[in-house]
Amino acid sequence: MTPPVHLAAQLAVNVLDAQSLLAAFDVLGVGVVLFAETGLLVGFFLPGDSLLFTAGLLCTGTADHGVKLSLGPLLVAAAVGALAGSQVGYLLGRKAGGALLARSRSARLHEGAKRAEELLERYGHAKAIVLARFVPVVRTVLNPMAGALDVPVRTFTLWQVVGGLVWSVGLTLAGYALGSSIPNVDRYLLPMVAVIVAVSLIPLAAEVLRSSRAARAKGARG
Fold it and tell me: What pTM does this model have?
């Protein structure tokens, strides 16, 4: 039976704070949060990037937050949560179509849906599915959008697995590597998380720039 004090601490967890989530739920929380963020539209606000990076950092035992995670179970939980969530999101979109988004009044969610649809149209299925993993909100809504737009199951599954593993395992190992090499790294946690999130947007920015240049070149030839 869960002690009352520990239960109260879990109930008081701040779901927007990565360290609070990890202190309350350990690696299980990582899997659950990633599943919700990538599979359920209600999870679009959850801190996937910072959670993965912080969890990897806490595997080193160098951060003074009273939380020590094991890298192996963490990687498994992160991968399973990210991959299962995306597949569930796709299946929900395939079944319910646009009705899921139509019920939401969140302007941020609808903006994410617009960007997700633009990604699919501009870059094709494979590249869009991988790139979306690195863009907050878009990685939540692209999965049901792909289902609603009838992206083939095999295509979606293949590329969501590729993108999901690169995202979940990559960010976790980035946190672990930095935590292992920098003394007292927890002092710099917030700016480091900001840098990781910014770096994760580089592939999308590069694609946008390349596409823009290609469009200008095509216009000049026309």
Answer: 0.74
